[in-house]
Structures are given as C-alpha cells and as structure tokens.
Amino acid sequence: MELQEIYREGFSAQHSKTKPKISFEVFPPKNGDISTLFEKVRLLKKYNPALISITYGANGGTKDLSFELIQSFIDLELNVMPHFTCVGSTRELVEHYITQIENLGIENILALRGDQVEEISNNDFKYANELVEFIHSKTTLSIGVAGYPEGHIESPDIKSDIENLKKKIDAGASAIFTQLFFDNDKFYSYVELLRNSGITLPVIPGIMPIRAVNQIEKMTQMARVTVPQKLLYQLEKFPDDTKKIGTEFAIHQCQDLIDNEVSGLHFFTLNHAGQVSEILDNIF
C-alpha cells in the first residue's frame, strides 16, 4: 500500500474516530545476525503496522543486509519502506537499488540526505530533493521525506528549512516523516507553519522513546531538539529510572498527539520491541 493511500483516511477529512497509523523504524544489526531483530519485529506485528522502515549505513555499508531484512519482513506480510540516502550514492547505484526494490514489490521508499561523511566523496546527489527528483523520474515509488519540527540543525531558521522541504515536495514527495521531538507544541506549530506555507502532505510525527541519558545527549548534539525542563529534571533526579521515565513520557506524548488527531505515529525503535510494545499497550 502506497503512502498516499495509507495516510489518506482522515487526512483530508475529520478523523477523530479513527486510530492513527502505526509505523516502526529498525536498522540492520551491526553483528549481521538478523534473527533477534526478526523476532522483535514479529512481536511488533501484532500492532498491525502500516509500515516497517529499514535504514542502512553510510555508503551502503549494510545495504546487502537490508535486502535480507526486507525479504524476511515481506515474508511476514509487512509493508516495507526502505531508506535511501544521498551519501555515497551515484545515479547508477540508486537506479540499481530502486529497480531491486520494485522487483520485490516494494511501493514506498524514504529518501534522505543522510549524515555527511567526510571520507565519502562519490555523491551524485548533494541534497535530498535531488535524490527525490531522480527516484520520482525513474520509478512509480511513493516517496517519503524528512521534516524537522524545530528546523534542521544546519538551517539558519525554520523558514529556510520549510523552503528546503518545499523543494522535496515539488520533486515528488508523498508524505513527511518528522525527526524526533519531545515538545508536542513544537510539532503542532510546525504543522501550522507548513499548512500556512501551502504544504498539504500528511505529516507523521517521529517518536523516539528514551532509554538512556546518553541517548538524549547524543540526539541534542546531532539535531535541533528541545528537551522539556520537567523531563530533564526527572532524568537527572532519578538516573536509575531512565527507561521507565522515558516510557511514561512517550505514553503521554503519544496520547496527546492522538487526541490532536495526527495521521500516524512513527516509532524509532532502536531495535527494542519491549519498550515500544509497552507504550502501544497503554495508548490503544
């Protein structure tokens, strides 16, 4: 099922009576053993996810393993959305990759710029909109792109960031999946800015449940993400309860998003099924 169809229901009309679509992001394990991840995804399948997205490393470092995962998830009758980034990507590589994707029956792909890697120079695509345009010109794949509720860390301001998002949409994007955030008001303001800018695509909030304090430190260094003071206070006061605090926060965050009629919830699982399961069991 393509992105347009997945998020059509309730997007163009009132949908307070319907549940948001659930999706999960996973990544190929560094040790190459996919069996444990496969079992975790099998557990998550009970939540009837609309999508399972699969990342891969810079320069395609785990691309072959990603295809192994893709096939295993297809065998589970899951709707798979692979990632593809500009980093280390030539036109030939991208065309070969997306041909393989379509041959597997995949309908959706998430096109990203990716984190810049200094030692990788063979990039035919500098920005995500260039990658989206190329994929759109070569296939019928439905293309998801990234959005940044507080602006991309390299953008001077939110207005410039939205202008960059418009370029991706004009190039052929079908839906927007946001970077993680912890302040829902930032997300609501972002969506309002997008709508006022004429962007009408579904905007799917990205949720990353907190598991460790160093996770917060890493995310705030890599991305423009505001952590509410109340949450920081709890994490600092009860360092041994980080996972519990993170789970409870995510439950309340997701419930508030549902109450405000989001089209979907996209979980960055970090390959941990248990915590995400606990969150979903508490909101549905």
Explain what you see.
There is one protein chain. The protein has eleven helices and eight strands. By secondary structure, it is an alpha/beta fold. The protein has one domain: TIM Barrel (Alpha-Beta Barrel). The chain has an eight-stranded parallel beta barrel with strand order 1-2-3-4-5-6-7-8, surrounded by four helices. The longest helix is centred in the C-terminal third of the chain and has 18 residues, at 242-259. The two termini are 23 Å apart. The model is unreliable at 10-16 and 58-62 (pLDDT under 50).
Strand content: 15-25%
Order of helices and strands: HEHEHEHEHEHEHEHHHEH
Strand order of the largest sheet: 1-2-3-4-5-6-7-8
User: Would you identify the CATH architecture?
Assistant: Alpha-Beta Barrel
CATH fold group: TIM Barrel
Portion in helices: 40-55%
Which shape, going by the Cα principal axes? Answer: globular
Overall pLDDT: 88
Q: Termini separation (Å)? A: 23 Å
Report the count of strand segments. 8
Q: Tell me the domain tally.
A: 1
Concise account of the structure shown:
The chain has 284 residues and is α/β, with parallel strands linked by helices.
